[in-house]
């Protein structure tokens, strides 16, 4: 294989770059994939080199070729100045906060935020002297009304991963940039393939790589991408000061997942939309929350800003007892009951977000169930849910 120059590589399509990024067979004894390099200590040829740390890799926590390969692949789809990898998606979120904020700062966080991120803000960040205000995810340019003199950052997540509110990211970015306030986004749902966060001005773009990157429900990992070299310098400094190293096996598995990410999403996106449409027509279902479904909340923003959708959405059932919901979900044979998503397998998850929202009051009248569509045959999945609805009706 002849090596591509950087400009030649940059001109390739996203799918091609995902296949090529982070591997150089001449660096791995000719094998296609980069090796899993394990290591803490790096040994130097002589005293002089050691004293100035003259080496491609200086110590295990300072970088590792397997991690570099993953960061190169993530960077090529994020399109920013650089990516760091973290031991979980949650750590990717918390690292972005720790990079942006100092004692005395104020941060605005969407009320639809991933719940463990909210817990981090309410406890750890509070203890460090950072004040959090939650805002209505649909706020748009009115976010400016919440800016205080010490507001340093706005945290966005679109859509919310339980209730699927879309956010007007361009409006929020425009308001924030006027005041030199940073904007970060948890972009796990769309992935960089379907929402180009940096192009929209997002400064720090976060992925729970556990989801569609790793995609096989066997790895916890996260990434943070910085829009500019200056922002990356700060991110990299925080990452290295915290000693956030990822096991090379996990980096390897995530990279392996990413090679097939675009085909999986191309299969899962229409399956998710088809399932959402089928569910909308069911008599047991009150509402389907899936931004890519025409007529669903947030669809217009999704159509304007996003180029695709993943296969995670929520249904609101017509009012029914939790016992009936249990009868429906417990008997499913293809859908596991469990947290997380983005893997190859389908999942369901009952939830009630009313207890912890503070800026908005969700108006659900019936139970809410989040659904992730995996790579199974969709007719099999519909039959499984159809039998589930029969159990729900029988138990109501
Ligand atoms: C799962 C998830 C995370 C956290 O990822 P983990 O790897 O499970 O820690 C963060 N944000 C969103 C939106 C998620 O769905």
Short description:
38% of the residues lie in helices and 15% in strands. The protein contains 14 helices and 12 strands.
Question: What can you tell me about this protein's structure?
Answer:
The chain folds into 2 domains: 6-259, Type I PLP-dependent aspartate aminotransferase-like (Major domain) (Aspartate Aminotransferase, domain 2, 3-Layer(aba) Sandwich); 262-395, Aspartate Aminotransferase, domain 1, CATH 3.90.1150.10. The longest helix has 20 residues, at 261-280. Helices cover 38% and strands 15% of the residues. The protein has helices at 6-10, 14-20, 47-51, 65-78, 89-100, 115-127, 169-178, 191-194, 229-242, 248-259, 261-280, 299-305, 322-330, 378-395, and strands at residues 82-86, 106-110, 131-135, 151-157, 182-186, 204-207, 222-226, 285-289, 312-317, 336-337, 347-351, 368-372. It has a 7-stranded mixed sheet with strand order 1-7-6-5-4-2-3, with helices on both faces. A 5-stranded mixed sheet has the order 8-9-12-11-10, covered by helices on one side. The mean pLDDT is 97. α8 links the parallel β5 (182-186) and β6 (204-207). Bound molecules: pyridoxal-5'-phosphate. Pyridoxal-5'-phosphate is lined by residues 88-90, 93, 114, 157, 161, 186, 188, 208, 210, 220, 222, 340.
């Amino acid at each position: 294989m002849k090596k591509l120059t950087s400009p030649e590589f940059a001109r390739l399509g996203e799918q091609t770059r995902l296949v090529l990024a982070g591997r150089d067979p001449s660096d791995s004894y000719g094998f296609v994939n980069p090796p899993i390099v394990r290591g803490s200590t790096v040994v130097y040829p002589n005293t002089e080199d050691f004293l100035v740390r003259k080496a491609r890799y200086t110590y295990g926590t300072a970088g590792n070729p397997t991690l570099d390969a993953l960061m190169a692949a993530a960077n090529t789809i994020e399109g920013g100045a650089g990516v760091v990898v973290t031991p979980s998606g949650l750590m990717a979120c918390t690292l972005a906060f720790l990079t942006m904020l100092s004692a005395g700062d104020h941060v605005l966080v969407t009320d639809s935020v991933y719940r463990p991120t909210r817990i981090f803000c309410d406890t750890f960040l509070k203890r460090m002297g950072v004040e959090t205000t939650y805002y209505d995810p649909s706020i748009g340019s009115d976010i400016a009304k919440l800016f205080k003199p010490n507001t340093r950052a706005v945290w966005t997540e679109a859509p919310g991963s339980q209730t699927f509110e879309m956010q007007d990211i361009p409006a929020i970015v425009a308001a924030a940039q006027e005041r030199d306030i940073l904007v970060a986004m948890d972009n796990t749902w769309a992935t960089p393939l379907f929402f180009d966060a940096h192009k929209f001005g997002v400064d720090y773009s976060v992925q729970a790589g556990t989801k569609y990157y790793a995609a096989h429900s066997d790895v916890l990992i996260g990434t943070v991408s910085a829009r500019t070299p200056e922002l990356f310098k700060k991110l990299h400094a925080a990452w290295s000061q915290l000693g956030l190293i990822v096991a090379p096996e996990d980096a390897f598995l995530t990279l392996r997942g990413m090679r097939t990410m675009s085909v999986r999403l191309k299969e899962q996106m229409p399956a998710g939309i088809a399932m959402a449409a089928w569910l909308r027509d069911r008599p047991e279902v009150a509402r389907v929350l899936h931004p890519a479904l025409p007529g669903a909340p947030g669809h217009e923003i999704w159509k304007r800003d996003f180029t695709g959708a993943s296969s995670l959405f929520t249904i609101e059932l017509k009012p029914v007892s939790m016992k009936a919901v249990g009868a429906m979900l417990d008997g499913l044979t293809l859908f596991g009951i469990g947290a997380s998503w983005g893997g190859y397998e389908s999942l369901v998850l009952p939830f009630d977000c009313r207890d912890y929202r503070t800026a908005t009051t969700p108006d659900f009248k019936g139970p809410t169930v989040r659904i992730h569509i995996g790579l199974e045959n969709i007719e099999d999945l519909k039959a499984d849910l159809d039998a589930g609805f029969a159990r729900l009706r029988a138990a109501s």
